[in-house]
């Protein structure tokens, strides 16, 4: 499995790209497209010009678009796919032509196969991303063999195709509940327990029972 990550994906999806989707893909009127785009995007131009911290962050993350798709909005995950559908369709075609399985979840892109994925194919994938104006989070580019534990969107897939809870999440839960006392906010620990039990419903039953009794 070949896994890559698009760096600062939402902040590099421009307002124009979102507007064109509403205007020309959904065929809304120009005024409706503008209203919808205003709701789904954010303009950080002023902050960029006046706040040194924001400017440093934008420069470090290589964010090109000062008016872009909102981060944290419930509309952004699906829009990030829809406005980039042609790019993802091109990746899917690469997968089809080389007998690979293609999966995408927001900024996480995966290609899987029972055989080794050649470097030439991986280079094609990266070219599609860069051609569309996106940068690669190089430290998150991973090639997994069939014998590796694979981390996919926060879930571990074991070599025998079972689901596992990432060690990082396990440690956070254990550290958040030490000797019957909470060392993190209650809602934070509850959220981590929900995430863990979504993967393994039998995990952390003791801590979960304690938290339920606090209601």
Could you describe the 3D structure shown?
With 215 residues, the protein is α+β, with helices and mostly antiparallel strands. The protein contains 10 helices and 12 strands. The strands form 4 sheets. Strands 1, 4, 5, 6 and 7 form a 5-stranded antiparallel beta sheet that branches. A 3-stranded antiparallel beta sheet has the order 8-9-10, with no helix packed on it. The protein has a two-stranded antiparallel ribbon with strand order 2-3. β9 and β10 form a beta hairpin. The model has no long low-confidence stretch (mean pLDDT 90).
Summarize this structure as a short list of keywords or feature phrases.
single chain; 215 residues; alpha+beta; five-stranded antiparallel beta sheet; three-stranded antiparallel beta sheet; 10 helices; globular
**Per DSSP, what share of the residues sits in E-state strands of 2 or more residues?**
15-25%
> Looking at the structure, what is the overall shape?
globular
Oligomer: single chain
- The helicity comes to 40-55%
Q: Characterize the biggest β-sheet.
A: 5 strands, antiparallel
Count the beta strands: 12
Average pLDDT taken over every residue: 90
Distance between the termini: 43 Å
Q: State the order of secondary-structure elements, H for helix, E for strand.
A: EHHEHHEHHEEHEEEEEHEEHH
Low-confidence spans? none
Number of helices: 10
* Coarse structural class: alpha+beta
Q: What's the alpha carbon Rg, rounded to whole Å?
A: 21 Å
């Amino acid at each position: 499995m070949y896994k890559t990550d698009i760096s600062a994906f939402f902040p590099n999806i421009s307002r124009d790209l979102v507007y064109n989707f509403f205007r020309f893909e959904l065929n809304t009127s120009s005024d409706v497209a503008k209203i919808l785009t205003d709701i789904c995007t954010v303009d950080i131009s002023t902050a960029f010009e006046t706040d040194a911290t924001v400017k440093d962050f934008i420069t470090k993350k290589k964010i090109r678009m000062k008016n872009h798709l909102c981060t944290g909005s419930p509309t952004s995950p699906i829009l990030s796919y829809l406005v980039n559908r042609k790019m993802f369709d091109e990746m899917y075609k690469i997968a089809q032509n080389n007998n690979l399985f293609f999966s995408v979840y927001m900024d996480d892109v995966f290609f899987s196969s029972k055989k080794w994925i050649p470097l030439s194919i991986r280079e094609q994938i990266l070219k599609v991303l860069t051609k569309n104006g996106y940068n690669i989070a190089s430290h998150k580019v991973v090639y997994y063999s069939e014998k590796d534990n694979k981390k996919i969107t926060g879930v571990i897939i074991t070599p025998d195709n079972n689901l596992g809870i990432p060690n990082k999440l396990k440690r956070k839960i254990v550290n958040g509940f030490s000797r019957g006392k909470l060392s993190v906010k209650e809602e934070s620990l509850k959220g981590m327990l929900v995430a863990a039990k979504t993967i393994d419903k039998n995990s952390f039953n003791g801590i979960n029972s304690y938290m339920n009794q606090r209601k």
